[in-house]
Automatic annotation (TrEMBL):
GO CC annotations on file: cytoplasm
Keyword Nucleus tagged: no
Organism: marine sediment metagenome
Family that this chain belongs to: Belongs to the FtsA/MreB family.
Coiled coil: none
Any single Pfam family the record assigns to this protein: MreB_Mbl
GO biological process terms held by the UniProt record: cell morphogenesis; regulation of cell shape
Name of the featured protein: Cell shape-determining protein MreB
Entry keywords, A to Z: ATP-binding, Cell shape, Cytoplasm, Nucleotide-binding
Length: 351
């Protein structure tokens, strides 16, 4: 390494990144979450040229999603928790790294990136390569369940069971952790995006009304639930008539949305039950009192904790600030990389 590169590395702030399908979060040791942006980039069609002088990333780009003319391409470069567009992911990471550092040159941080536990070695290498090309001088990977458990303050290093259910945008991670490692886990490429798709399909099938993913996401947050509500609610849904092609609105109920997303919720429940089935008897006995912790954006779906508790018979808790747990975990890891090195996937190993 050139001595000047070494100096720039020392001058750069190390960062932990939750590189999510829906959102990217950055955590700085000692500072907490310093960036929370949608994983969206707007470019010139047929190129990797980011619009608005390289600033059409994150919230700015999401505002264009499903509204952009043919002269603008709006991309979500992460799909199901892995990189779907290498070049756009690199541009997005570079933008976020520079934004956090508030300068445009000489940024060479060490980076810990949280990724799904079920991805392949090739997919891990793609993440490492993107981060290195975006400016990281050293890259470490950690599975999302471990990062979430650390971020939520679970005793992951103790000889007791810590169970995490992390429902993000593209993946659901279910894991039982003991003595610093994952004892058993399930990784599904079914999560928040699948819930949005189910809502879109239900609205079209039931009301002959076409809506976009942003509208579906808003419906999910506004009236979505996994368990019957004490008082059911309604929402107005606006879109395009699937037959006439004209703008139209309809009113939908929380019961309907619950029906629409139940098959997807059942898939997540099956993963939780399968993980429990593969847990040893001694760790299972721990879970009778400790239960499991829900993290990720999906943890905020109304009544999901009640439904899982009812289906499994175990206590179910929602983490404080569940959507930031993974990112906070990467920040804690960076505070003492040597201590936590054994729980990380080193870039040289690729496994």
């Amino acid at each position: 390494m050139h001595p000047f590169d070494w100096f720039l590395g020392l001058a750069s702030t190390d960062m932990g990144i939750d590189l999510g399908t829906a959102n990217t979060l950055v955590c700085i040791p000692g500072e907490g979450i310093v960036l929370f942006e949608p994983s969206v980039v707007a470019t010139k069609p047929g190129t990797n040229q980011v619009l608005l002088n390289g600033n059409a990333v994150g919230q700015t780009a999401k505002a264009m999603l499903e509204k952009a003319p043919s002269s603008i391409t709006v991309t979500r470069p992460m799909k199901n928790g892995v990189i779907a567009d290498f070049d756009i992911t690199e541009a997005m990471l570079k933008y976020f790294i520079l934004k956090v550092h508030k300068r445009k040159w000489g940024v060479r941080p060490r980076v810990v990136i949280a990724i799904p536990s079920g991805i392949t070695a090739v997919e891990k290498r793609a993440v490492v390569n993107s981060a290195e090309r975006a400016g990281a001088r050293e890259v470490f990977l950690i599975s999302e369940p471990k990062a979430a458990a650390i971020g939520a303050g679970l005793p992951v290093g103790d000889p007791v069971a810590s169970m995490v259910v992390d429902i993000g945008g593209g993946t659901t991670e279910v894991a039982v952790i003991s003595l610093g490692d994952i004892f058993t886990h399930e990784s599904l490429r079914v999560a928040g995006d699948a819930l949005d798709t189910a809502i879109i399909q239900y609205i079209r099938r039931t009301y002959s009304l076409d809506i976009g993913y942003r509208t579906a996401e808003n419906i999910k947050f506004e009236i979505g639930s996994a368990y019957p509500l004490a008082e059911e609610i309604t929402a107005e849904v606006r879109g395009r008539d699937a037959v006439a092609g004209l703008p139209r609105s309809s009113t939908v109920t929380s019961e309907e949305i619950r029906e629409a997303i139940r098959p997807t919720i059942d898939t997540i429940l099956d993963a939780v039950k399968k993980t429990l089935e593969n847990t040893s008897p001694e760790l299972s006995s721990d879970l009778l009192t400790k239960g499991m912790l829900l993290v990720g954006g999906g943890a905020m779906l109304r009544g999901l904790d009640k439904l899982i508790a009812e289906e499994t018979g175990l206590p179910v808790n929602i983490a404080d600030e569940p959507i930031t747990a993974v990112a906070r975990g990467t920040g804690i890891l960076l505070e003492d990389l040597d201590l936590y090195r054994d729980v990380l996937w080193d870039k040289e190993l690729g496994t």
